[in-house]
Design a protein that fits this description.
Number of domains: 2
CATH architecture of the largest domain: 2-Layer Sandwich
Order of helices and strands: EEEEEEEEHHHEHHEEEEEEHEEEEHH
CATH class of the largest domain: Alpha Beta
Structural class: alpha+beta
Number of helices: 8
Strand content: 25-35%
CATH topology of the largest domain: Chloramphenicol Acetyltransferase
CATH superfamily of the largest domain: Chloramphenicol acetyltransferase-like domain
Largest sheet: 7 strands, mixed
Helix content: 10-25%
Distance between the termini: 66 Å
């Protein structure tokens, strides 16, 4: 019985995919639900599993573009015990080790000071040399010749030089989509960035004081991100324009708070979504973030977990960045950039003190968000993080 292999549905906005790595080539034996190939989409790579046990037959190759619902092969369940054909064994003759050939022993003569050189057994012309030069030459180590090449008395030729200094590799669908969206942001939005600096002393003190109890109770570490998510949600509630988006000639205001957290992976930047962040506790945010980050880095995240989002937070500080201009994640209108925490002197109450400082950057679409709104939004985040009690009091 032949069980068809079809491209599954991968989210509302995904209609096609590219065949990535083929894990089980045609002729291989597969088990039910065994990984057979990867599907690359504009959002994430997804593994396709075998629908039944048997021998697999694929009608596609790596790099082919396929549609959702398209049949790309089948599993022959009548050949459940089949296995992929083993590579052909080399001919017995090829396995035999060629007999070693030793250079002929020199015949030393002393007819008037010059030695006669014996003729080479390889068929090359004999060369007359002095006896001491000949002995020196055959005693020196030489590079082994390729098995198929005949022995030669001449000096081995140098290896061929590479004619190109570059390597070309086709971009993955995810990387192409990221590139397209970056250009789209530049051409279709009026993006500006406003900056501020944040004293992290209070957050770090709370985190240090409560870390042990928090971890024992919830089984997860208390990180900085949960504080930032809470501060962002509070600011979005105060400034709804930042939580909106432009759709044609209309502004769509969201009355929910789905916060995207940018995660760097080997295959590109992904933005998993923490749904309804306004309804989650610090512990729930940390647990959700840990789960989504692990899924993104291991390629197990689903498209639904990457779809949507009303605002994004990106942390360039984990890579050592002191300051940067984050790029909008369309169709969102705002993105907050976190950066490296650096101890530096600041003036507080007319005194110069050393504090752990972080630069914050808010990039926003000026078509929907005015400058005063953007600055006030960032100031609201700054105040809530410098005085964490404000978050608990909903100020």
């Amino acid at each position: 019985m032949k069980v068809e292999i079809k491209v599954p549905t991968m989210g509302e906005s995904v209609v096609e995919a590219t065949i990535g790595a083929i894990l089980k080539p045609t002729g291989s034996a597969v088990k039910a639900d065994e990984e057979i190939l990867e599907l690359e989409t504009e959002k994430v790579n997804q593994v396709l599993y075998a629908p039944a046990v048997g021998q697999i037959h694929l009608s596609v190759k790596q790099g082919d573009v396929v549609k959702v619902g398209q049949t790309i092969g089948y599993v022959d369940s009548e050949k459940a015990g089949a296995s992929a054909p083993s590579p052909e064994k080399p001919a017995p003759a090829a396995e035999k080790k060629a007999p070693e050939t030793k250079p002929p022993a020199p015949i030393l003569e002393k007819p008037k000071g010059e030695a006669k050189q014996p003729e080479s057994k390889t068929g090359s012309q004999s060369v007359r040399k002095k006896a001491d030069e000949y002995i020196s030459e055959i005693s020196a180590p030489k590079l082994p010749l390729p098995p198929s090449a005949p022995a030669s008395a001449t000096t081995p030729s140098p290896p061929p030089r590479t004619s190109s200094r570059e390597t070309r590799q086709k971009m993955s669908r995810l990387r192409r989509t990221i590139a397209e969206r970056l250009v789209q942001v530049k051409n279709q939005t009026a993006m500006l960035t406003t900056f501020n600096e944040l004293d992290m002393s209070a957050v770090m003190q709370v985190r240090e004081k409560e870390q042990e109890n928090f971890q024992k109770k919830h089984g997860v570490k208390l990180g900085f991100m949960s504080f930032f998510v809470k501060a962002v949600v509070a600011a979005l509630q105060q400034f709804p324009d930042v939580n909106g988006r432009i759709d044609g000639d209309e502004i769509v205001y969201h009355h929910f708070y789905d916060i995207g957290i940018a995660v760097g992976t080997d295959k590109g930047l992904m933005v998993p979504i923490i749904r309804n962040a306004d309804q989650l506790s610090y512990a729930e945010i940390e647990k959700k973030l840990k789960d989504l980050s692990e899924k993104a880095r291991t390629g197990k995240i689903s498209i639904d977990e990457l779809t949507g989002g009303t605002f994004t937070i990106t942390n360039a500080g984990m890579y050592g960045s002191l300051n940067s201009t984050p790029i909008l994640n369309p169709p969102q209108s705002g993105i907050l950039g976190m950066h490296n925490i650096v101890k530096r002197p600041v003036a507080i109450n007319d005194q110069v003190v050393i504090r752990p400082m972080m630069y914050l950057a808010l990039s926003y679409d000026h078509r929907i968000i005015d400058g005063v709104t953007a600055v006030s939004f960032l100031m609201h985040i700054k105040k809530n993080l410098e005085e964490p009690a404000r978050l608990m009091l909903d100020l």
